[in-house]
Amino acid sequence: MFDNKEKTNIEALGEFGLINHLTKNIELVQKSTIKGVGDDAAVLDFEGKRMLVSTDMLLEGIHFDLAYTPLKHLGYKAIQVNLSDIYAMNGTPTQVTVAIGMSSKFPIEAVEEIYEGIYIACEKYGVDLIGGDTSSSKQGLVLSVTSIGYADAEDVVYRNGAQEGDLICVSGDLGGAYVGLQLLEREKLIYLENPNIQPDLEGKDYIVERQLKPEARKDVIDLLKEIDVKPTAMIDISDGLASEIMHICKQSSKGCSIYEEKIPLDPMTFETAREFNLDPTVCALSGGEDYELLFTVKQADYEKIKFKMDISIIGHITEPASGCNLITKSGNVHPLKAQGWNAFPNSESADK
Amino acid sequence: MFDNKEKTNIEALGEFGLINHLTKNIELVQKSTIKGVGDDAAVLDFEGKRMLVSTDMLLEGIHFDLAYTPLKHLGYKAIQVNLSDIYAMNGTPTQVTVAIGMSSKFPIEAVEEIYEGIYIACEKYGVDLIGGDTSSSKQGLVLSVTSIGYADAEDVVYRNGAQEGDLICVSGDLGGAYVGLQLLEREKLIYLENPNIQPDLEGKDYIVERQLKPEARKDVIDLLKEIDVKPTAMIDISDGLASEIMHICKQSSKGCSIYEEKIPLDPMTFETAREFNLDPTVCALSGGEDYELLFTVKQADYEKIKFKMDISIIGHITEPASGCNLITKSGNVHPLKAQGWNAFPNSESADK
């Protein structure tokens, strides 16, 4: 019988601590495994092309709330967050597998809606759904997606290539998905108190969509190829800007300076954050789920990138000794903290 | 807000009906996708080698019960059931990704035990764990594994290649995993009624292990290569012999005759089934989770295969019009029914 002698709760480690703890002793044995755990996607060498593989699991009550998540959007988002990992390697996604667990009482129309969203996302990005698993769940809805893609060996961009002096760039704008979530949570509470009151999301389409229907930034990868800029390091923003740039700096053994005034914020994100008495910069740094691309480029590429509409240069890579810092609008220097979205929400993570 | 207007429950479809329903309109667009949904693993063409991908999800309360499943065994089994799918394509597994969802109250030692089982399985089969996802779950333990492997294009064995007259072969013995499960369920009930009574699994190691610690049949794939036999069709037995041979027959547009007296049963499976007033043949046909390989070979290969210890010839492929039949020991002919292990346990599946 299962002996439930508890010792250390996962809470004490946090997600990254746990992953690190569980994977630190892996020894890779296959010649075709170029990169395993530790980046956005695994890299496999299949005869010239690098194959890219990434897996993400979405759990009801942790990653989504069916009270305000349309099922079609959920399916769409499950694919997008996985494709985003392949783009973050500078690759081209080509296939996905989807494993889904749900109550056997779930109406078929609901499952269809999820798959409709999955198929729309696949079609839009030219990706094949190539397999998966469908099972009953006694415990709510679970979606696990594995995405597969490829890149020429010389095109793959890892997290560990940032060099001192490199410019730190980010696509789109940040914080919107998090502020959108606050809005949805508020309307849910109002609805639960009085179901006759319709949700008031009037004029908030943009940030609600940032939360419910993110888009993987294929266009940014295409743009970078077009202007012949290969990032030195890249990651997608799922846990917030602070957490992600710290991943790049840690794996590149470097520090960084991020300028608060350069962090791209949509006006609606800014205003709505204020309505919630939230600091818009903190929403961008720690909110997560924006699925924008964060990447570093050589200074020599500055001219190529400086006027690109959808790319902001927000700082630069420094020597490791100076650490990872935010330069505030008032000129103060604050060490960045990776208090991003946490897959173990109750946890006291070590870096908090 | 999510409008929960129910129409059709998943129950009415059953797992295969649901998968078929959800995937029937897929249009593959990638040149590299040779085979998507509909076999044990997807097949991708990456420059000469066929890459194989398969995903399976294990959910607490559906696929396993922590009351009697040691966590190390659970991790081991999660890998084995996925490798089994790659072998069932006549491939060589090379990588796996593991996504895991668990309560944040779960003790770290418990997670370590799961991963210990995962790593033991990976090491034993020379497979790299190359990525995954770890998240909190509000709803019990969830494991989703994606396995990746390869085969030369001409070596891949699908489900649809069986020809009239081909011999139907199965490795190992059947029904043990199901009977082992009955034993564990009984001991659990006894334990719940009186926790002072220790489980009585004395002398039942083999069938308990068949349930808790299955082995993917790499050795059978190696043997077939060694004796230069390429199956015409192959599948692994996860849902029971009846369900699996019907998959082969349906996809090959053929019928079959299976001889009850030829179905391999371990004496312990036979005896224990009798103790539970179960028909041992039904356990083999419908029990599932044996993870043996079921395959068809040309009659010309009979001499090569007839004396192989661990392979039983249990029947032959017939014309489609005669259907899928079991010839009983007394010579009666019964149409096979795919009432295998069902991922939607409450469902009335169409073929029952």
Automatic annotation (TrEMBL), chains A, B:
<feature type="binding site">
    <location>
        <position position="63"/>
    </location>
    <ligand>
        <name>substrate</name>
    </ligand>
</feature>
<dbReference type="GO" id="GO:0009228">
    <property type="term" value="P:thiamine biosynthetic process"/>
</dbReference>
<dbReference type="InterPro" id="IPR036921">
    <property type="entry name" value="PurM-like_N_sf"/>
</dbReference>
<keyword id="KW-0418">Kinase</keyword>
<feature type="binding site">
    <location>
        <position position="85"/>
    </location>
    <ligand>
        <name>Mg(2+) 4</name>
    </ligand>
</feature>
<feature type="binding site">
    <location>
        <position position="56"/>
    </location>
    <ligand>
        <name>Mg(2+) 1</name>
    </ligand>
</feature>
<feature type="binding site">
    <location>
        <position position="40"/>
    </location>
    <ligand>
        <name>Mg(2+) 4</name>
    </ligand>
</feature>
<feature type="binding site">
    <location>
        <position position="159"/>
    </location>
    <ligand>
        <name>ATP</name>
    </ligand>
</feature>
<feature type="binding site">
    <location>
        <position position="40"/>
    </location>
    <ligand>
        <name>Mg(2+) 3</name>
    </ligand>
</feature>
<dbReference type="GO" id="GO:0009030">
    <property type="term" value="F:thiamine-phosphate kinase activity"/>
</dbReference>
<feature type="binding site">
    <location>
        <position position="55"/>
    </location>
    <ligand>
        <name>Mg(2+) 1</name>
    </ligand>
</feature>
<feature type="binding site">
    <location>
        <position position="289"/>
    </location>
    <ligand>
        <name>substrate</name>
    </ligand>
</feature>
<dbReference type="InterPro" id="IPR036676">
    <property type="entry name" value="PurM-like_C_sf"/>
</dbReference>
<dbReference type="GO" id="GO:0005524">
    <property type="term" value="F:ATP binding"/>
</dbReference>
<feature type="binding site">
    <location>
        <position position="236"/>
    </location>
    <ligand>
        <name>Mg(2+) 3</name>
    </ligand>
</feature>
<dbReference type="InterPro" id="IPR016188">
    <property type="entry name" value="PurM-like_N"/>
</dbReference>
<keyword id="KW-0808">Transferase</keyword>
<keyword id="KW-0547">Nucleotide-binding</keyword>
<comment type="function">
    <text>Catalyzes the ATP-dependent phosphorylation of thiamine-monophosphate (TMP) to form thiamine-pyrophosphate (TPP), the active form of vitamin B1.</text>
</comment>
<feature type="binding site">
    <location>
        <position position="238"/>
    </location>
    <ligand>
        <name>ATP</name>
    </ligand>
</feature>
<protein>
    <recommendedName>
        <fullName>Thiamine-monophosphate kinase</fullName>
        <ecNumber>2.7.4.16</ecNumber>
    </recommendedName>
</protein>
<comment type="pathway">
    <text>Cofactor biosynthesis; thiamine diphosphate biosynthesis; thiamine diphosphate from thiamine phosphate: step 1/1.</text>
</comment>
<keyword id="KW-0067">ATP-binding</keyword>
<feature type="binding site">
    <location>
        <begin position="132"/>
        <end position="133"/>
    </location>
    <ligand>
        <name>ATP</name>
    </ligand>
</feature>
<dbReference type="InterPro" id="IPR006283">
    <property type="entry name" value="ThiL-like"/>
</dbReference>
<dbReference type="GO" id="GO:0009229">
    <property type="term" value="P:thiamine diphosphate biosynthetic process"/>
</dbReference>
<keyword id="KW-0479">Metal-binding</keyword>
<feature type="binding site">
    <location>
        <position position="133"/>
    </location>
    <ligand>
        <name>Mg(2+) 1</name>
    </ligand>
</feature>
<keyword id="KW-0784">Thiamine biosynthesis</keyword>
<comment type="similarity">
    <text>Belongs to the thiamine-monophosphate kinase family.</text>
</comment>
<feature type="binding site">
    <location>
        <position position="341"/>
    </location>
    <ligand>
        <name>substrate</name>
    </ligand>
</feature>
<feature type="binding site">
    <location>
        <position position="115"/>
    </location>
    <ligand>
        <name>ATP</name>
    </ligand>
</feature>
<keyword id="KW-0460">Magnesium</keyword>
<feature type="binding site">
    <location>
        <position position="85"/>
    </location>
    <ligand>
        <name>Mg(2+) 2</name>
    </ligand>
</feature>
<feature type="binding site">
    <location>
        <position position="85"/>
    </location>
    <ligand>
        <name>Mg(2+) 3</name>
    </ligand>
</feature>
<dbReference type="Pfam" id="PF00586">
    <property type="entry name" value="AIRS"/>
</dbReference>
<feature type="binding site">
    <location>
        <position position="54"/>
    </location>
    <ligand>
        <name>Mg(2+) 4</name>
    </ligand>
</feature>
<feature type="domain" description="PurM-like N-terminal">
    <location>
        <begin position="38"/>
        <end position="150"/>
    </location>
</feature>
<feature type="binding site">
    <location>
        <position position="56"/>
    </location>
    <ligand>
        <name>Mg(2+) 2</name>
    </ligand>
</feature>
<feature type="binding site">
    <location>
        <position position="239"/>
    </location>
    <ligand>
        <name>Mg(2+) 5</name>
    </ligand>
</feature>
<dbReference type="GO" id="GO:0000287">
    <property type="term" value="F:magnesium ion binding"/>
</dbReference>
